[in-house]
Amino acid sequence: MHVPIKSSNKESCIPTPTSQEGNEEPPDPGSCLAVSSALSTTTRKGHIVRFPSPPTGSAKPAVWSFRKKHFPCVTTKLWNDWRWQTSNRIRNLEQLEKMIMLSDAERAAFTHLGRTLPLGITPYYMSLVAPDNPEQPVRRTVIPTIYETVCSIGEADDPLGEDRMSPVPGLVHRYPDRVLLLLSDFCSTYCRYCTRSRMVGHGAIHPSRKRLEKAFSYIAQTPAVRDVLLSGGDPLMLGEEKLSWILSRLRQIPHVEIVRIGTKVPAVLPQRITGSLVRTLRKYHPLWMSLHFTHPDECTPEAYRACTMLADAGIPLGSQTVLLRGINDTVDTMRDLVHNLLKMRVRPYYLYQCDPITGSSHFRTTIETGLSIIRGLRGFTSGYALPTYVIDAPGGGGKIPLMPDYIVGREQDALVLKNYENKQYRYPETSTPVTPG
C-alpha cells in the first residue's frame, strides 16, 4: 500500500508501515505539556511543586512549516511513526537541494561522498536544520562539507585502535572489565564527526545471530567482563524482538552485571521511543543508557517526551557530548545544553574532545577551549550539570580526564587551592595521624 505525497509539484509514493507499532501514536508534545501545566498543584497530603514545562520556543513552528512545505500529505500519525521516518530519510543531493540552500563547501562534498560517511537524516531532524544558514550548529553536524576530505597530521580512520582490540568481529575489549559490542553499522542520522565513520553506513556490520553468538561466547568465557556496552551504529534501530533476544542472551551470562546502550535516537528520532520499546527494555534491568546530545536545539518537546518515557521506565540516562568547533564550544551554549539535559532527567556524563578521525580538523577545538568551558561551568551551575571532560587517547589508551588546575601548591602542612572565583584557600594536611595523649 502506498500513500501519494505531493511536493514541489511532483508526486512520490511513500510506503505505509506494515508493523502494528505504527498504530501506537505518540501524543502531540505540545498537548502533553499543556496538560502537565494544567494539573492541580495540590493533593490531600500537601503541595506538589512541578518543574516548569520546557518551552517550545520557535522550534515547533519551524517544524510545522517544514512538514507543510515538504511533506504536506503526511499525517501526524505517520510523521510520528519511526519506521516511516527511517524509510524516508534524506539520502542524496537532489533531496537536499529541495530543502536547503547549499553552500559551495556543502555542494562540493558530494563529489567525494562515496568515499566517506554517507548522508542520512531523518525528516524530523531535517526539520531542525536552518534552510539558509550553513553555519547553523545542527546543520553543520549532519550536512557534509568538502572539509571532510582534508586529512590533517595525526588523523586516522581508526584513531582509537578499536580494530586491533577486537578478539571477535564487532566486539572491542579495551578495558579489563568492560566490552563494547557493535550490533550493526546503521544509524537513522549520520553525524559528520562520527568516530566510526570508517565502517558506519557502509554495510560492514550486520546483527546476524552467527556473529553475535561468537561475541556472547567470548563474553561468557571471560569472567572479568561485568559491563557490556551495546553500540554501533545505533542499537535502537533494531526491532524489539531482536533487541529482546540480544538482551536476554546477555542476561544469561552470570558475570554480566549491567548492560548499557549507546544511542542518539532521542535526539534524531525520538519517535522510536515507543511504549512497546520501553516495555521491552525495562525487562532487562539493570539497564543504563548513554545518549548523545550535541546542542540545545536538539532539546525539543519530542526529545523531552522520549527521555521522560525512558526515565519513567527506570533507565538511568547520561549524555555523552562531543566538543565541536563553532557548534557547542562556548560556555553559554554548553550551559544551555546541560541545563536542558537535567530538565529532561539526563545527567551530563562526558564532554569528549573530538577524536582525530580522518577529515575532522574543521570540527576539533583546542584543549584550552574545553578547559575554559569546564571553568565556566564549575561553581556557576549545579554539580550534576558538570560533565567530565575527557580525551579518548589515540591508539587505544582509553579515556583520560582533563581538569583545570585548581591546586596552587603547598605551604608547610597545607594544600593551597583555588576556587571557581580564583580565590585561594588552605586545606590542612597532616603527614602522620594524631593520637590522643
Polypeptide structure, described:
The chain has helices at residues 29-38, 59-70, 76-79, 82-87, 93-99, 104-109, 123-126, 137-142, 209-220, 240-251, 265-268, 275-281, 301-312, 331-343, 367-377, and strands at residues 2-7, 10-15, 42-43, 46-47, 171-172, 178-182, 227-231, 258-263, 287-291, 317-323, 347-353, 388-393, 398-401, 407-411, 414-418, 424-428. It has 437 residues and is of the alpha/beta class. The strands form 4 sheets. The chain has a 9-stranded mixed β-sheet with strand order 5-6-7-8-9-10-11-12-13. Helix 10 runs parallel beside helix 12. The longest helix is centred in the last third of the chain and has 13 residues, at 331-343. The N and C termini lie far apart (90 Å). Mean pLDDT is 86; it is low at 1-46 and 48-59.
Strand and helix layout:
Layout: E1 2-7, E2 10-15, H1 29-38, E3 42-43, E4 46-47, H2 59-70, H3 76-79, H4 82-87, H5 93-99, H6 104-109, H7 123-126, H8 137-142, E5 171-172, E6 178-182, H9 209-220, E7 227-231, H10 240-251, E8 258-263, H11 265-268, H12 275-281, E9 287-291, H13 301-312, E10 317-323, H14 331-343, E11 347-353, H15 367-377, E12 388-393, E13 398-401, E14 407-411, E15 414-418, E16 424-428
Helix pairs in contact: 1-13, 10-12
Distance between the termini: 90 Å
User: What integer value in Å does the Rg equal?
Assistant: 23 Å
What is the number of strand segments? 16
DSSP summary: helix tally: 15
- Side by side, the strands of the main sheet go 5-6-7-8-9-10-11-12-13
Quaternary organisation of the protein chains: single chain
